[in-house]
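Amino acids appear as letters; backbone shape is given numerically. Here is one record.
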Amino acid sequence: MPSLTENGLRMPVRKALGILMGVVLWTAHASAAEWSDGVSQLILSIAPSWDSPKGKLQLFEKDGKNWRAMSPVITVLYGKSGLAWGRGVLDLSDQAGPIKVERDKRAPAGIFRMGKVYTYDPQLPEGAAYPFHTIGLGDAWIDDPTHPLYNQHVVIDPANPPPWFEKQKMRHDDPPHRWLIEIRHNSDPPVAGAGSAIFFHIRRGPERASAGCTVMSEENIVQLLRWLRPAAQPHYALLPKEEYLRIWKKWGLPSPEQAEALLK
């Protein structure tokens, strides 16, 4: 994931983007009843509030029509400023709350498909069986909203790099980015300025929040990698507690009884 650098947008423009996102953010999504068709793995994370940089996460699998917890509760960190609605699989046009924009230091809330794993290792940890890509010298992830390939993984010829590459290249030797598990926020298709480069990855410290990713200990990242299976169509649901309690049933999420450990 590239480092966060200024891209020429001034603060008033970023605020204007937040307003515009309310118009374009919620198109071409599944209904609440449809998103889980064929989905049998769910990562559920609940934050105390919209502005909380810290919360809890638990792994669930679908047993018939019911969700069943498959892991202990994991402590995670989000963006430094908390959460904001992101562009995922559901239409959120009837939801109130902050809306995710580039560089707002908020993690996207909603339900999201999981993408592939990006790593600078030649293989995944033993026991993991999930699509992955080994990061090379030509790999970049575009976080510049003015770039035509915004919020996309790009591979260039490192012998002839374009002028933008130095600021957008992915890291090869940064321990927190050893395992990047893509959260497909603002991906289908990307909307300029709605947020980019959102992953699960290793935290930099027990209390050090991220710029918008969901981060945890390396032990927990490896646990997650070993659990994920592409045939299960894994999804990630992230919500503030109040929102979860309001819409869990409508969205087909684990019930408060099933997610009791997350609510304590």
Notes: Confidence is low (pLDDT under 50) at residues 1-28. The CA atoms of residues 115 and 197 lie 11 Å apart. Residues 11-24 form the longest helix (14 residues). The radius of gyration is 18 Å.
